[in-house]
Specification:
The chain is an alpha+beta fold and 926 residues long. The protein has 25 helices and 32 strands. The strands form six sheets. A ten-stranded mixed sheet has the order 5-6-7-14-15-16-17-25-26-28, covered by helices on one side. A hairpin with a 3-residue loop joins strand 16 (459-461) and strand 17.
Length: 926
C-alpha cells in the first residue's frame, strides 16, 4: 500500500496545463514561491537529550517532502489539482514570508519555517515503520511535514533506513538524475528539448565511462583509510535500502507513476522493470550536483576573445588595461565575506604572464557534441537547444547557490550566535533536495540532502551546531591548448603524438504518455585528452590546436563524501576548527558557514590547483610541462593544491554575509561581476546596520534576509545615481519627467518588487518596475557601446550578461527561477556614472563611457533611452512564455516549481532567497 493519500490544495495554487508536457520542463535551476495561509508550528513536547538548540532551530524546503506519487495520484493531480499528502505543505509557509516578514516575531517564525528540533513528539507521530522488516532501524514521520526521522541501533541499519526513506520520497527523481549523470536522460524519460539540453550540458562536463565511475569509488576509498571504508559500507547499506523499497513498491504496485507514464512499467499487467541502483549510480548523481553547484572556473576562451577585441580596438597595452578594468579581478569596492582585511591571494594577475595561447583572430570554433541526428533530434529547435546547453556549460558564469547571514553572539540579544542561511538550488517538483533526520552510531544530524546522495545530511544541523554553504566560484578549471599532430584527433603530449580517446553515448526515444516528442536519436561524442575534454578548435600562431578544459574535481566527484561524513559525526565536530577541518575534505567550490552557541566560522572549500609560475588562470595556456599544474599526474588527475591556510577562512568575525560574492581580499573568482555593486551588498548593508545597533534577534536577521529578497538591486544601489545625472538639470520632457517621478517614488518606498497585498498578483509601483525593466538594457547599451564599439561591447556581454532581473529569460539561471541579480552590468554603470558625476571611484573603469565623459551628453543619453523605455507597453517588456501571457508582470517574475515528475504546483510571488533555509540560535553546547 502507498503510505500517502491524496488531499485537495487551495485553488489559487493550481495551474491548468497539458498533461503530456509534465516532463518537458526538466531544465536547470528554475523556480517557485506563492501564498498559502501560514501554518502554526506545534511546539515539541520535549527536547531530545542530544539537542542543544532549545527549540530555536528551524528550516523550510518547498514544495514538500513527498516527491513520489502513484499513477492514480498523478492522474488526480492533473485532472483536479489534488495533491498527495505532504507534496506541497511547505510551499505556503515559504511563500508567505514575502508578505509576512514585516510583522514577524520570534514566536511566529514557526508560521514560515518548520521546527527543526531532533525527534518527533509522541502526539505528532504520523507513522512508524521498520523498513524491510528490520529490527535495527525505525523511520518515524511527523504529522506536519512528513519528514523522515531515521533512528538506527546499528550503522548498517541506519544507512539502510536512509536509503529506504530516500526512495520513498524521491525514487523517480533519483532515477532521472542517475540517467542525467550518464548522459542517458532522453532514452529514459523522453526526447523533449529540455531533456536533450540537460543531458548534453552534463555530458560535456563529465563524459565518464562506467570504468571511470568505478575508479572514482576505488580511489576515494583507497586514499581515505578507515573513513573511506566506512563511507563505502554506508553507501552499500544505503543502496540496499533503496533497492528494498524498489522491490516492495513494485510488488505492492505503489511505485512512482512516472514509470507507467514513460513506458517502463505496464499499468495493467505491471510488466517491466525498475532497475536496482548500484554504487556507480551515486557517482553519476554526484557528478551532476558537483558540476551544477560546485565547480568554479572555465570561460578562458571567452576571456581571450574579449581581450583580443579590446586589443584590436585600443592596441595591446591600452586594450589590456580596458579589459582588466571590466574584469574587476580584485576590485577595492567589492563586498567581501572575510571583511577584516586579511589577504588570501589566489588567481591574481601575474607580473609577466607565461605560456599564454591566445587564438588567432576568427579561428575559434566550438567542438560539436551531437552527431548523427535523426527524427525530432534533427529539428531547428533541437539544434537551438544544443547551442544553449553549450553556452551554459562553457561560460564562467555559474548558477548561484546561496545565501548566508551569520552574526556573532557579541552582537545578539541573547549573546549566542544567530544564522539564517541556505542554498539557492532552484525550484523543482519534486525538489532536488529532501529533508531528513538521521540518528545512529556515528551520525546525528537533521537537514537537507540531494536526492540519491542522502546517506548523510549535506546541509543542516548536528547536536549543537549548524552548517550551510553557498557557491564560491573560485577557479579550479583551466583551459589548455593542445597542439594537434597527424590529424584532428591526435595531439602532442610531452613531445609524443598521442591519440585522443573517443567517448560516445547513443540515445534514442519514442513518444510516451508522459512525453509526446516524436521519435528521434543522436550520438553524443566527446574527444578526451590527458588535459581533459576538447571544447574548442582554433589556431594559435598558425598552429592547429584543440582547447581542452581540465578541472581539479574531474574524476574526483566521489571524494567529497568524507567531508560530509565528518560533518554528520558528533564525535568529530565539536567546534569551529573541527568544522573547518571537515570542510577541507570537500573538493567542490563552496563557501561553508558554521554556528553553535558560542562561535561562528567560515571556510572556502575546493581543490585549488597550484599553477606554474607566471600562468594567468584567466586565459588558455599551452599544454606543455612548463605550464601544467605543479606535480600534476594525468593518470589520476591529481596535483599540488593550495594549503587550507591559503583558503579564505575565519572564526568569530563580527558577522559574515555571502551571496556568491567575492570571498576575501586578493582572492579572485572565475566569474565576472565582483565590483562595487553586487547582490551581496543587499545583505551587507542590512546586516552591518543590525550589528552596529546590537541586540540582533532571529526575527531581525530573518527580516534582513527577507527584505533583501524582495529588493531590486539596480533600483536600490544604482538608480539613485542615474536619477542624480538626469536631475542635474530641470527635466523638461514630459514623458521623461513622469517616468522620473515614478522611479523616484519607488526608490523612496524602498525599491522592492512586492505585491499590493498578499495574493493580489499585482505589484506596488508596477509602472516604475516596468520602466526600469525596459530601461536597463537600453541605458547600458547607450552608455557603453559608443565608447567600446559594437565588437568589444558584444564580446564583454558574452563574459557577463547585461541584466538578470527576475523576469529575464537570459543569464545562467533562466526564467521563473527566483535567483536574480547575480550577474549584470550594475557595477560598471555605478562606477561610470559616479566618474561622470565627478565622485570618488576606487578601481574605476579605464575610461568614462556615458556621454564620452560629458555630464550633459550622458544626461541626454539617459533621458533618450528613458523616453523609449517609458513608451514600451507591458506586453513588450514582458512578452509572455509557456507560463505567462504577454504583459503579466507579476507572472513574468513569479517562481515556478518546474516539473521533473507528474505532480504540478502553482506559481508563487517572486523572492530572491535560498530554496532550503535554516534559522538557528543554539542555547547551549556539549
Amino acid at each position: 500500500m502507498p503510505r500517502r493519500t491524496p488531499r485537495t490544495t487551495l485553488d489559487r495554487l493550481r495551474t491548468s496545463r497539458r498533461f503530456a508536457g509534465f516532463l518537458k520542463t526538466a531544465s536547470i535551476c528554475v523556480l517557485v514561491a506563492g501564498l498559502l495561509s501560514p501554518l502554526t508550528q506545534t511546539a515539541a513536547a520535549a527536547t531530545a537529550s542530544n539537542d542543544y538548540c532549545g527549540g530555536q532551530c528551524s528550516d523550510i524546503l518547498p514544495p514538500g517532502e513527498n516527491g513520489n506519487a502513484t499513477l492514480a495520484q498523478i492522474l488526480l493531480n492533473q485532472a483536479f489539482g489534488t495533491q498527495p499528502s505532504h507534496a506541497e505543505d511547505q510551499l505556503g509557509p515559504y511563500a508567505g514570508l514575502a508578505s509576512g516578514y514585516s510583522g514577524l516575531t520570534d514566536s511566529t517564525i514557526g508560521n514560515f519555517f518548520n521546527d527543526a528540533s531532533f525527534g518527533v513528539p509522541s502526539d505528532q507521530v504520523a507513522s512508524t515503520e521498520k523498513p524491510g522488516g528490520r529490527g535495527d532501524v525505525t523511520i518515524v514521520r511527523d504529522k506536519k511535514t512528513g519528514v523522515p526521522h531515521i533512528t538506527g541501533s546499528t550503522r548498517y541499519g541506519t544507512e539502510y533506513g536512509a536509503g529506504y526513506a530516500a526512495a520513498e520520497d524521491r525514487l523517480w527523481l533519483m532515477d532521472v538524475f542517475r540517467h542525467v549523470g550518464r548522459g542517458q536522460l532522453t532514452s529514459f524519460a523522453g526526447g523533449a528539448a529540455a531533456n536533450q539540453g540537460l543531458e548534453q550540458e552534463f555530458y560535456r562536463n563529465a563524459p565518464y565511462t562506467e570504468a571511470d565511475l568505478q575508479a572514482q569509488i576505488d580511489n576515494a576509498v583507497a586514499k581515505s583509510g578507515a573513513r573511506g571504508q566506512q563511507a563505502l559500507a554506508d553507501v552499500k547499506a544505503y543502496l540496499d535500502g533503496v533497492n528494498a523499497y524498489i522491490d516492495a513498491s513494485d510488488s505492492g504496485r505503489y511505485f512512482p507513476g512516472e514509470y507507467d507514464l514513460t513506458g517502463h512499467k505496464d499499468p495493467i499487467t505491471n510488466a517491466g522493470t525498475i532497475e536496482h541502483f548500484k554504487v556507480t549510480d551515486l557517482v553519476a548523481l554526484a557528478s551532476v550536483i558537483g558540476s551544477l553547484f560546485g565547480s568554479g572556473g572555465g570561460g578562458e576562451v571567452n576571456n581571450a576573445l574579449s581581450l583580443l577585441a579590446a586589443q584590436q580596438k585600443y592596441g595591446v597595452e591600452e586594450g589590456t588595461r580596458v579589459w582588466e578594468s571590466f574584469r574587476e579581478r580584485n576590485d577595492p569596492e567589492a563586498v567581501l565575506t572575510v571583511h577584516d582585511g586579511t589577504s588570501f591571494p589566489y588567481g591574481t594577475k601575474p607580473a609577466d604572464a607565461q605560456g599564454e595561447a591566445l587564438p588567432d583572430a576568427g579561428s575559434v570554433a566550438q567542438e560539436p557534441l551531437v552527431y548523427d541526428r535523426t527524427g525530432s533530434a534533427a529539428t531547428a529547435a533541437a539544434r537551438s537547444t544544443s547551442a544553449n546547453a553549450a553556452r551554459t556549460t562553457l561560460g564562467s558564469a555559474k548558477r548561484g547557490m546561496s545565501n548566508a547571514l551569520v552574526v556573532s553572539g557579541k552582537y545578539t540579544a541573547s549573546g549566542h550566535p544567530i544564522a539564517v542561511f541556505g542554498p539557492q538550488t532552484g525550484y523543482f517538483a519534486p525538489q532536488l533536495l529532501m529533508l531528513q533526520e538521521i540518528q545512529g552510531p556515528g551520525i546525528s544530524a537533521r537537514g537537507a540532502s540531494f536526492a540519491g546522495l542522502s546517506m548523510y545530511v549535506e546541509l543542516g544541523r548536528g547536536q549543537d551546531y549548524s552548517w550551510s554553504a553557498t557557491t564560491s566560484g573560485q577557479d579550479i578549471i583551466d583551459t589548455y591548448a593542445v597542439e594537434l599532430c597527424q590529424d584532428d584527433y591526435h595531439y602532442l603530449y610531452h613531445g609524443t603524438c598521442t591519440a585522443m580517446d573517443k567517448v560516445e553515448q547513443k540515445n534514442s526515444w519514442s513518444p510516451t504518455t508522459a512525453d509526446s516528442t516524436p521519435a528521434g536519436s543522436y550520438t553524443m561524442r566527446v574527444w578526451r585528452t590527458k588535459y581533459g575534454p576538447v571544447e574548442y578548435r582554433a589556431t594559435v600562431g598558425g598552429k592547429k590546436v584543440a582547447y581542452t578544459t581540465l578541472r581539479s574535481s574531474y574524476l574526483h566527484e566521489a571524494d567529497s563524501i568524507i567531508g560530509f561524513q565528518m560533518l554528520n559525526d558528533p564525535d568529530y565536530v565539536k567546534g569551529p576548527k573541527d568544522f573547518q577541518s571537515a570542510a577541507q575534505h570537500i573538493n567542490y567550490t563552496f563557501n561553508w558557514f558554521y554556528a553553535d552557541s558560542q562561535h561562528t566560522a567560515y571556510y572556502n572549500s575546493g581543490d585549488n590547483p597550484v599553477r606554474a609560475s607566471g600562468v594567468d588562470a584567466e586565459f588558455p595556456v599551452w599544454a606543455q610541462p612548463a605550464y601544467e599544474w605543479r606535480n600534476w599526474d594525468p593518470a589520476t588527475n591529481t596535483a599540488d593544491y593550495t594549503p587550507a591556510s591559503a583558503h579564505p577562512n575565519s572564526v568569530d568575525q563580527d558577522y559574515y554575509i555571502s551571496w556568491n560574492n567575492k570571498q576575501a581580499k586578493d582572492y579572485t573568482t572565475s566569474s565576472w561581476g565582483d565590483g562595487s555593486v553586487h547582490r551581496g551588498n543587499l545583505l551587507q548593508d542590512r546586516v552591518k546596520k543590525l550589528v552596529a545597533a546590537g541586540g540582533v534577534t532571529r526575527t531581525k536577521l530573518v527580516q534582513a534576509m527577507a527584505d533583501a529578497a524582495l529588493a531590486d538591486l539596480r533600483a536600490e544601489d544604482v538608480l539613485p545615481k542615474l536619477l542624480k545625472v538626469i536631475n542635474s538639470s530641470p527635466v523638461t520632457d514630459s514623458t521623461a519627467a513622469a517616468a522620473v517621478g515614478k522611479l523616484q517614488a519607488w526608490v523612496s518606498a524602498g525599491a522592492k518588487r512586492t505585491e499590493t497585498s498578499a495574493g493580489s498578483k499585482t505589484y506596488r509601483d508596477a509602472d516604475a518596475i516596468r520602466i526600469l525593466d525596459a530601461w536597463w538594457p537600453l541605458l547600458v547599451k547607450a552608455e557603453f557601446e559608443p565608447g567600446l564599439g559594437s565588437d568589444l561591447y558584444s564580446a564583454i556581454t558574452d563574459d557577463i550578461p547585461v541584466d538578470e532581473a527576475p523576469s529575464a529569460g537570459h543569464g545562467p539561471t533562466g526564467s521563473h527561477a527566483g535567483s536574480s541579480f547575480q550577474y549584470g552590468w550594475w557595477s560598471y554603470v555605478d562606477k561610470d556614472i559616479r566618474a561622470v558625476l565627478g565622485e570618488n571611484v576606487q578601481g574605476g573603469l579605464a575610461e568614462k563611457y556615458c556621454g564620452g565623459g560629458s555630464l550633459g551628453a550622458c544626461r541626454d543619453a539617459l533621458i533618450g533611452t528613458l523616453d523609449q523605455a517609458a513608451g514600451m507597453t507591458a506586453a513588450q517588456v514582458y512578452p509572455g512564455d509557456d507560463q505567462c501571457s504577454a504583459g503579466d508582470q507579476w507572472c513574468a517574475d513569479s517562481i515556478v516549481q518546474r516539473t521533473l515528475g507528474g505532480i504540478k504546483h502553482g506559481k508563487i510571488s517572486w523572492q530572491n532567497r535560498p530554496t532550503f533555509q535554516q534559522v538557528v540560535e543554539y542555547t547551549s553546547h556539549r
